[in-house]
Amino acid sequence: MNVRNLKPETWNHILSDFVAWLKIEKALSANTVEAYLNDLKKLQEYLYSVGSSATPQEVTSAMLSDFLVYEGKHGIKARSQARMLSGVRAFYKYLLMDNIIDADPTRLVDSPKIGVKLPDVLTIQEIDALLGAIDLTLAAGQRNKAMLETLYSCGLRVSELISLRLSDTFFKEGYIKVKGKGGKERLAPISPKAINEINLYMLDRIKINIAKGHEDFLFLNRRGKALSRVMVFTVIKNLAAAIGLQKTISPHTFRHSFATHLVERGADLRAVQEMLGHESILTTEIYAHLDRSYLRETIVEFHPRSKK
């Protein structure tokens, strides 16, 4: 490989080009780009704290390993360290591809060992209780019910939910079009229950003074604008408190519950992968682990040979 003959560039200069590559070539979301930048800024801060003035081209595998050790000593858990290393790996993959370096220093850095963390899930009864706690006499009541039914019915990410548009709904066919990570689109089946709740919400929606540019967004706030992620989190948090739910839940809990309930009832993992929009089947396989745990608990509780 012919490395470009240039002087050691500043971090800011290379990071600017890296951001452009992530946005244009990789089509990553703004949140992912920001996370990668934060990881690299932490690396910069670490190098500065130990007196190093290394440019991106001068960073070594040893420096990166020491960086992860440093983060671990300061309370950063293995899972977060692994995520940070993922951002750094993406950066050096770009440098290698753009002939700014001739060897990737992350190649020799071991990823922190992390166990498989099974996500919290809600039972069907808990989901019913949360939806039943929605006060339909409030102006936002029917919207919230339609919103959460859609979240659970389709297994959406919160970012996918708040960006859902009227033009993305195909209720006669029983599908919605979802724009997922990296701008990738997929068709997700939507349940008759969710469709019914959305249709009821539409009776309230037509009374809203919709802000310019937000006419096509399905779920709107009282000011006629698309919902924020924080609003969805707040709605769920308040409902959990209302029914005295002890689990710590978020919009993503509905997505986990969607997948878990499908797998528990025998759905094919490949079908679940498609519905969730996972790029790799390995990401979806965590729900197979959940299912095995569920099966074991069932056997322990009901099989006659499990009784002492």
Describe the structure.
This protein is mainly alpha-helical and 308 residues long. It has 2 domains: 11-108, DNA polymerase, domain 1; 124-301, hpI Integrase, Chain A. The protein has helices at 11-25, 30-49, 61-73, 78-97, 124-132, 141-154, 158-162, 192-205, 229-242, 251-264, 269-276, 281-284, 286-302; strands spanning 169-170, 175-179, 185-189. The protein has a 3-stranded antiparallel beta sheet. α2 (30-49) packs across α4 and α10 crosses α13. The protein is elongated and about 60 Å long.
In terms of structural class, how would the helical and strand content be classed?
Answer: mainly alpha
Strand order of the largest sheet: 1-2-3
Secondary-structure element string: HHHHHHHEEEHHHHHH
Percentage of residues assigned to helices: 40-55%
| CATH topology label of the largest domain | hpI Integrase, Chain A
Radius of gyration: 23 Å
Poorly predicted runs of 5 or more residues:
1-8
Query: What is the CATH H-level superfamily of the largest domain?
Result: Intergrase catalytic core
CATH architecture grouping of the largest domain? Orthogonal Bundle
- Name the overall outline: elongated
Number of structural domains: 2
